[in-house]
Each structure stands twice: as structure tokens, then as C-alpha cells.
Amino acid sequence: MEPITWLDFEKVELRAGTILEVADFAGARKPAYKINVDFGPLGIKWSSAQVTKHYTKEQLLGRQIIGVVNFPAKQIANFMSEFLVTGFADENGDIVLASIDKPVPNGSKLI
Questions:
Q1: In the beta sheet, which residues pair with residue 22?
Q2: Distance (Å, whole) CA 102 – CA 45
């Protein structure tokens, strides 16, 4: 692991957002959802999330997640991902979302 400075960490915009919409992502190589997330003053953004093993679409609606919002948009199949959903791989490599245990304002920065 390469050490980083505090200034490096401050460049990463890890923000809280609430999932507004979830749809199947048929064009993805691995099973995934398209999610629409409200990041408050930073706007509403789309991303894909390979979280189908642990979450149904209904379980994701209204949930607050942590996203990296300052990466450039990335094309995934026929879809433009506007932020990176954060999570951890379980023992099988399936993604468990990084989560917020108490509500915070959308757009709040991880500090």
C-alpha cells in the first residue's frame, strides 16, 4: 500500500446521497443496477452498482450511500456512470455497500 498525504485524501469527494431510482442494467457484464442518487447541492447523478447479490431494488430505494462524485464520467456498456458507488467485497467477491448509519444531509462530505 502506498501512503498518501492529507491533501491527497482531501481531493477525493466522498459524498452522501439518497437513492431515488433503481433499474436493472441489462447491458452490464456482471449483474448490476442503474441507480439514480440525489447528492443535494451537487445534483442528481446516475451510476451502476454491482450489488444485486445483497440488495433488491426495493431495499435500495431511499437508502443513503457514499459516492465518489469527482471522477470523470465513465461509459459502462451503453450507460454513462457519473459517480462511483463505494462498498466492500465479501468473502465471495460480492459487493456490500459502504453505508451511513444515521441520516445526514445529501451532499455531505466524508471527513
A1: 35
A2: 22
Contact 63, 101 (CB under 8 A): no
Residues in the chain, total: 111
Interacting residues of 109 by C-beta distance below 8 A, sequence separation 6+: 13, 14, 15
The pTM of the whole model exceeds 0.90: yes
pLDDT in tens, the chain (111 residues): 999 999 999 999 999 999 999 999 998 999 999 999 999 999 999 999 999 999 999 999 999 999 999 999 999 999 999 999 999 999 999 999 999 999 999 999 999
* Contact yes or no for 32/46 (Cβ under 8 A): no
